[in-house]
Every structure is written in structure tokens, then in C-alpha cells.
Amino acid sequence: MSKNTPKTEEDNGSDPDPTKIKPYTWPSLAKPMKLPHPQKRSVRPLFSILLLIVFAATVSFRAVLRRADVNLSLSLSAWSPQRKTHVLSFNSTLLKYASVDISEPRAKQEIEQLLEGNFASQGRYRTFATWRRFDTHLDLRARSSNSIQALLRSPRFYRYWLQFRTVLHDWARKKTSFDPEIMSDLIRSVKLPLTNNSKRYSSCAVVGNSGILLKSEFGKLIDSHEFVVRLNNARTTGFERNVGSKTSVSFVNSNILHFCARREGCFCHPYGVDVPIVMYICQPVHFVDYTVCNSTHKAALIVTDPRFDALCGRIVKYYSLKRFAEETGKSLDDWGVARDGANFHYSSGMQAVMLALGVCDKVSVFGFGKSGLAKHHYHTNQKAELGLHDYEAEYAFYQDVIERPWKIPFISSKFKFPPMVQIVVFML
Ligand SMILES: *[C@@H]1O[C@H](CO)[C@@H](O)[C@H](O)[C@H]1NC(C)=O
Ligand SMILES: *[C@@H]1O[C@H](CO)[C@@H](O)[C@H](O)[C@H]1NC(C)=O
Ligand SMILES: *[C@@H]1O[C@H](CO)[C@@H](O)[C@H](O)[C@H]1NC(C)=O
């Protein structure tokens, strides 16, 4: 963990002035932003530049404002709409379609090949001669060969190879089953290895990478959460006032590490070797990179349970199918073609939110959503969205987490969603 908040004159220990803020409700993140004009005369100048839009459709939102420009902390009173008061009824056709993983047969075949040491179909991993990281112990013959046998003669590689096979095997075994109770297992599988205890985090911030973060200065608020999750190596340096500087966990997809098997300088320790990483596996071959990265990472490097991945996949697909049917009026069979079904995937942000919901008492979500007034990412100049995600479907899911968690499919009735708020602030 690292906390490195710049000291300011506000840090004088005095009690904050409690000020009530009425939450604005905003039905859909996907709609273009309409910003109400701040009341220039009736408020202090500092307040007048700060416009708070809080996506908590529910009541009891309490905010404590101390010097509105830099320091704002939120607390939610206990609230949690629970599904027990609602009769569950899900559309069984949608459930059925959402449960089919089109990419499953391909993944199964890949895993079998990899366990046998056959990397022939693995694109850039195919030629071991390009794995320069292992060159030192290899003779020239090995370097010019594509055979894994040659590589296995390198003691250094052999160690990785055994670990690779073990983790891939364990992962593949779990991948074959679906478990609706998996949300309740996150405390054991993630929280426990991170902190050596099973107590839920009291407050969590999931920091998305949307450019809307640059329109506010929520760095201190973000850092005030016990557990701060950042996504896909987004850097904080230079953006501390907007995004904070504390990182409790770096959440990434395995594509981020894809150079680790091949060269020393990969993106393995974005926030240093002491910040734990939680990662989901996009392709089974990425376990090679995982194994290599893990060997130099001091803190935990946790791969998400494939049953948790499957749950996230089903949920997002359910919302995507539903939206597709409602907006196009077409048959659900056409969804696969329209959305590139075999490559369709939930975003890293969605799974990070799911993770936080599983290990936290309350969850605040920052930097999710888009606006014509803001960059796509706060830290890059990337223009467009990636086609393999359905962000609108994910926004609909977040909205249900906040307002109607009983409407979320595939979740065991034993799991209770903690309260979540989605926070967007615009400084005009
Ligand atoms: C984890 O907690 C147990 C029991 O509280 C303790 O015995 C053990 O030393 C702890 N391990 C670490 C690595 O802190
Ligand atoms: C990851 O690294 C840690 C510490 O070096 C080690 O204990 C653990 O066995 C490794 N895990 C795998 C799956 O290689
Ligand atoms: C289930 O959803 C699909 C797609 O939205 C719709 O066409 C179908 O009529 C629904 N079935 C029921 C029983 O509501």
C-alpha cells in the first residue's frame, strides 16, 4: 500500500462543517450530460464552481464538506435494498442465452494444447526464440529452435514451466463449472490473501479511467477510502488532485502483462512491487506472463477465479442481450453477429466493481461514464471505445446495483449487495 497525499493547510485537525448536499439523480449515465447552472449568488464562491452529481437514487446521502475545493468526504447511512422483498422473476430466454459462452470450445482446446507444451497456435508466443528473457541459459541451437524441449533444458525456464502448468491446470479445472455463490467466496479468495483477515473493507473506491475525472478534484476523497482500486495501470503521477495517489490494489486484465515472458521491462509492477495486483486472464497463454511477473512481484499477484469471471461475463451479456432486443427488436440469435459474440467481453472496470461489491461494506465508484465534454481516458489520448465491450449494458448494470440489486441475474439470493454510489463532479 502506498499513501502519499500532499499536505495542505486544510490538514489542521479541526472538525469539518457538516453540510447537507442533496443528491441529483441521473437516470442514465449513457445520456449526454446536461449540467445545471450553479447558483452563483446564493453560495460561497468556492461552492459555486463545484457541482455535485451523485448517482444515489436512494435517500440518506450525507456529505461532509470541509473547504469544498479540496476536501470532501462522504458517508452513507445504512441502506441496502434487498431482494428478499421482491419476487424474483427473470426472463428465462435471456438467462439461457446469457449462459452460453461462445468462446468456450476454443478456450478448452487452447488449454489442452498448452498443457502439452504445444504453443503452435499461440501467435506471438509461438516462437520461443523470441523469449529473450530466457536467452542467457540457452545455446544457439535452442535459440533457433521453436521446440519447447530446447527451452526446457534451461533450468531457469524449467522452473517457470512447472509453475505455469500448475496454475493453468488449477484454473482450467475451476473454469468448467458455474457457481452462483462465487460472490460470497471473494472474501476468502481475494480479501484474505491481501490482508490476512476476513473482515470486509469499511470503504472502497473503484477508480475508472474516464476523462471526466479531470473535471473534478477528488484525489483526497478517493484516497480517504480504506481500499482504493485502480485499473489497467493508469498512472496517478501528475493527476493526484484529480485521481488521488493511494493504490491498494492494481486491477488489470492479463493483456497488460503480455510482454513479461519475452522481455525484462514489462508492465508488471506499475505501482511498485509492494502493491498487490488482481488480474483476470483473457487468454490461457497469459499464464506464462503471470508466472514470470509473479516471480519478481513482492506483494500478492492474484488471478481471479474463473467462476467469478464467468459470473461477470453472464451478467454483462444478459444486460447486453436485453438492450439489444429492446433497441433493435431483433431476435436474440442476431446478438452474436451484431456484438462480435466470440470476442465480446466485460470491461476491467466492471469486474473491479464486482470485486469491490464482494469485499467492501460500501463502494464508491469514480471515473466511470463518458461525456462529450471530457477525454476518453484521463491519462491517454485514446479516442475511441473498444468494440468488444458494451459499456451501455454495464452502465445499466451499475444502475441496478445502486437502485434495484434484486434485478441482477445469476446472483445467489444469499449474497447481499453493499450500498454503492457513483460520483461525478464537474468543476465549471
Ligand atoms: C496471519 O494471521 C495468522 C492468525 O492471525 C497469524 O498466525 C499469521 O502469522 C499471519 N500471517 C501473516 C503473513 O501475517
Ligand atoms: C508467486 O510468488 C510467490 C512469492 O514468490 C510464491 O510463493 C507463489 O508460489 C507464486 N505463485 C505461483 C503460482 O507461481
Ligand atoms: C424475454 O426477453 C426477450 C428479449 O427481450 C423477449 O423477446 C421475450 O418476449 C421475453 N420473454 C418473456 C416471457 O417475457
From TrEMBL:
UniProt keywords (A-Z) are: Glycoprotein, Glycosyltransferase, Golgi apparatus, Membrane, Signal-anchor, Transferase, Transmembrane, Transmembrane helix
For whether the record's keyword set contains Methyltransferase, the answer is no
Query: How does the record say this protein sits in the membrane?
Result: Single-pass type II membrane protein
- Record-linked PANTHER family: BETA-1,6-GALACTOSYLTRANSFERASE GALT29A (PTHR46779:SF1)
Q: Name the chain's protein.
A: Uncharacterized protein
The organism is Quercus rubra (Northern red oak)
Q: Which lineage do the record's taxonomy fields give for this organism?
A: Eukaryota, Viridiplantae, Streptophyta, Embryophyta, Tracheophyta
Basic and acidic residues bias locations: 1-10
Q: Which pairs are disulfide-linked?
A: 204-360
Q: Where in the cell is it found?
A: Golgi apparatus membrane
Looking at the UniProt entry, the stretches that span the membrane are 43-65
Q: Which GO terms describe its cellular component?
A: Golgi membrane
Q: Where is this region: Disordered?
A: 1-25
